[in-house]
């Protein structure tokens, strides 16, 4: 079961890579004409195509590209001829750092308050948590981000407004600089996780054995933590993994708000400059992270729930 | 207060009021706005005054006027996108549910591939190919979002297909389109309605985010996401100009979510939030 799920994940990634390649390389038409312009002679066009390897069949070009990607070679950027991996590597680490930082804050908050809301269902704590979560879900990332910048770094100079970090920034300073973007992300992701944690605990609460526990006269807090929670754990864990995946996307906008040197900002930059190899590389990296996290979520669900291990 | 025969909590009433206000502004736009859409009325980032209620933007256009015109553009685009997404999603979803295993497997696997990575990443790659225009924006987001609608419509369709009245219609010899449009669609309408609110919110935020990134609604139209991007420079001088359009976006989505939340709590039929999981 677990192996077949991982296999499915790899297959998905392969198909996605084909779609990405077709989308960015085949559909836009002839790269040579768009680079050299309409006035280029047929000879220069042919020479240029040969130089870029564009005169080979699409399937071969795909295999060559895929082989490069698997060896960690994404080619060079069109605009400044930089090696993409050299730029992408540190940026990828930055993005993971930001997402990890946000996850560290979001996880305890979301699971804690989610369980608390489930224990006190329908009471003030629950309703308050619900309203706050609803507000947080509705707000665009940039609104929260700029609100924080205006209040915490412009009006009171407590945090830097631009999260500019280099490769040699010391760890303490890095944490300091990334705090505001991480808080922004936390705010958004926590809301989703909180609501789903609460709902999955509550849906376990409506089962017969939980009713039995209540009838035995146990307190609500004890029923939730000892009886309901162990069975609610596996949906909660997959919810968490799904939201970590969501975190990776939320990063795109947040990185742009704080001009943080991560993969998201790199990709937006590349799209505005129409730098195809870079767009492709960033797309594949995002796809890889997202599919890995999703696969991980499903594997965890299988591990935690014996019923899923034995197909009917 | 009761609406449609149900007692509405305070939050839902507030939500409805916000939605109505936004619709009013979007529809009556040009009559409400004191100045022209691109008319320059003062210096860059003038503070709020009696003549310009929210001050002016980065090149001296009236912020209130821009917000009013922006409402029309931003809400209109998101609405058209959602309609397109539903048209594609419902058609494919119900066809997949009714037409048989092979068609279903084919469409479902294609949708799985699209949903296996974030829609924002797809959108960035597709917009790179199509270039920046209103049409390509609506088309891209509409197609991408239809995958989510497809999942819900297919799930609803599969539940309905096994019911007796559909069986009867098939035995009568009715064709695929009759079964879909006369037997299935009317019965799937209610859950699809509350899904519409959720998807509208999603598309609205999605387009705002793209505009903010400079890849959404092209110039010179006023739209809220783009206005945030244009006025961001003022933030570091402590000027809140960029926050007004951002707050307008947040306000409308909060309003819709409040109402949808209430809808979902009155009928516990399969909702978008559950079908998406």
Automatic annotation (TrEMBL), chain B:
Coiled coil: none annotated. The lineage of its organism: Bacteria, Pseudomonadati, Pseudomonadota, Alphaproteobacteria, Hyphomicrobiales. The chain crosses the membrane at residues 12-33, 73-99, 119-144, 200-222, 242-264. Keywords: Cell membrane, Membrane, Transmembrane, Transmembrane helix, Transport. It is a multi-pass membrane protein. GO terms for cellular component: plasma membrane. It comes from the Bacteria. SUPFAM superfamilies: MetI-like (SSF161098). It is found in: Cell membrane. Residues 71-260 form the ABC transmembrane type-1 domain. This is ABC transporter permease. Belongs to the binding-protein-dependent transport system permease family. CDD domains: TM_PBP2. One of its GO terms (biological process) is transmembrane transport.
């Amino acid at each position: 079961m677990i192996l077949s799920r991982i296999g499915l994940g790899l297959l998905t990634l392969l198909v996605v890579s084909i779609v990405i390649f077709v989308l960015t390389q085949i559909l836009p038409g002839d790269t040579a004409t768009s680079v050299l312009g309409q006035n280029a002679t047929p000879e220069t066009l042919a020479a240029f195509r040969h130089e870029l390897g564009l005169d080979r069949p699409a399937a071969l070009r795909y295999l060559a590209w895929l082989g490069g990607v698997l060896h960690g070679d994404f080619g060079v950027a069109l605009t400044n001829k930089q090696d993409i991996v050299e730029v992408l590597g540190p940026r990828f680490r930055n993005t993971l750092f930001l997402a990890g930082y946000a996850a560290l804050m979001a996880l305890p908050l979301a699971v804690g308050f989610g369980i608390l809301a489930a224990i006190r269902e329908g009471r003030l704590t629950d309703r308050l948590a619900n309203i706050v979560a609803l507000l947080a879900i509705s707000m665009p990332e940039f609104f929260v981000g700029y609100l924080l910048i205006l209040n915490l770094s412009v009006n009171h100079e407590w945090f830097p407004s631009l999260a500019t970090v280099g490769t040699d920034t010391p760890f303490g300073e890095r944490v300091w600089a990334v705090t505001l973007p991480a808080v922004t992300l936390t705010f958004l992701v926590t809301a989703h996780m909180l609501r789903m944690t609460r709902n999955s605990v509550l849906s376990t609460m409506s089962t017969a054995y939980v009713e039995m526990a209540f009838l035995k006269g146990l307190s609500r807090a004890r029923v939730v933590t000892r009886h309901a929670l162990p069975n609610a754990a596996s949906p909660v864990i997959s919810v968490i993994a799904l939201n970590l995946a969501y975190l990776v996307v939320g990063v795109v906008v947040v990185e742009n708000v704080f001009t943080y040197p991560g993969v998201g900002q790199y990709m937006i930059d590349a799209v505005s400059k129409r730098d195809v190899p870079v767009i492709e590389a960033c797309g594949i990296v995002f796809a890889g992270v997202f599919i890995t996290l999703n696969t991980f979520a499903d594997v965890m669900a299988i591990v935690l729930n014996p019923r899923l291990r034995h197909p009917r | 207060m009761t609406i449609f025969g149900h007692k509405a909590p305070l939050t839902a009433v507030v939500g409805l009021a916000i939605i109505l206000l936004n619709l009013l502004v979007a529809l009556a736009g040009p009559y409400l706005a004191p100045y022209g859409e691109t008319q320059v009325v003062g210096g860059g980032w003038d503070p709020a005054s009696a003549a310009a209620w929210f001050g002016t933007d980065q090149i001296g256009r009236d912020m209130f006027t821009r917000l009013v015109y922006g409402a029309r553009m931003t809400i209109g685009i998101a609405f058209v996108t959602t309609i397109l997404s539903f048209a594609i999603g419902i058609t494919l979803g119900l066809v997949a549910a009714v037409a048989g295993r092979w068609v279903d497997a084919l469409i479902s696997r294609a949708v799985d591939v699209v949903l296996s990575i974030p829609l924002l990443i797809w959108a960035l790659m597709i917009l790179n190919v199509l270039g920046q225009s209103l049409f390509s924006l609506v088309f891209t987001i509409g197609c991408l979002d239809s995958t989510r609608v497809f999942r819900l419509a297919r799930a609803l369709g599969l539940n309905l297909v096994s019911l007796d009245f559909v069986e009867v219609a098939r035995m009568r010899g009715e064709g695929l389109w009759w079964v879909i449009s006369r037997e299935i669609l009317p019965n799937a309408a209610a859950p699809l309605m509350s899904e519409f609110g959720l998807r509208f919110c999603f598309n609205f935020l999605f387009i705002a985010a793209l505009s903010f990134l400079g890849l959404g609604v092209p110039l010179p139209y006023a739209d809220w996401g783009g206005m945030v991007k244009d006025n961001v420079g003022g933030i570091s001088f402590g000027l809140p100009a960029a926050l007004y359009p951002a707050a307008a976006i947040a306000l409308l989505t909060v309003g819709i979510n409040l109402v949808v939340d209430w809808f979902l709590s009155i009928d516990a039929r399969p909702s978008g939030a559950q079908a998406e999981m």
